Amino acid sequence: MQDDTEIIASYGHPERWFVKASRKRAGRELAITALHWEVGLAIAAVPLTALLAYEFLGLMLSVAFPHTHG
């Protein structure tokens, strides 16, 4: 019966597997982080866009009807 080191040695170089796996995992984590940034920016963009539209509408109304403000 083979012990663990012989079994691992018979499959090649396991340190390469670990390097590959960690590289893949790091890439996936970077992709998830980028996705979180995109989602966060999209969530922040909605109220900011609404606020800018509201302010722009107020500016346009104050230019169009200057006499209605006291």
TrEMBL record:
The keyword Transmembrane applies. The chain crosses the membrane at residues 30-54. Keywords: Membrane, Transmembrane, Transmembrane helix. This is Transmembrane protein. It comes from Ralstonia solanacearum.
